[in-house]
Prior knowledge:
Blueprint: H1 2-11, H2 17-24, H3 28-40, E1 61-69, H4 78-85, E2 90-95, E3 102-108, H5 111-122, E4 128-136, E5 141-142, E6 145-146
Helix pairs in contact: 2-3
Amino acid sequence: xxxxxxxxxxxxxxxxxxxxxxxxxxxxxxxxxxxxxxxxxxxxxxxxxxxxxxxxxxxxxxxxxxxxxxxxxxxxxxxxxxxxxxxxxxxxxxxxxxxxxxxxxxxxxxxxxxxxxxxxxxxxxxxxxxxxxxxxxxxxxxxxxxxxxxxxxxxxxxxx
Length: 160
């Protein structure tokens, strides 16, 4: 039951308990109880709205930074990852496979602000061996939501 409720909320957080109850067959009280429990045990971490900031002309610069680190004895990558995710510029931090160890999604007002973050905060951390910064030039889809207005792709018909 909880998984069904979580999937509904993940798709649209504005769905209320009565709507979820009718979708799942549970009572509204049971849905409310399960949601409150999921909030208190941190199964539900946050409610989020996906905004297309270009529509309100609020420029934001996003970058994906690959970070190569030296794992620390007994804690591996966790200690450095925690130091990084505590910075407000770091929106998401992931342990990844491949050449680099961490992928860090950061947001700033300018490219210069992100460059300063890398140079002054990220690179000096003990154990950080190197970084590669990829600036995101355009967002097409975020959290499963198209930012392009939901229009269907226009394609020329194929004549055989």
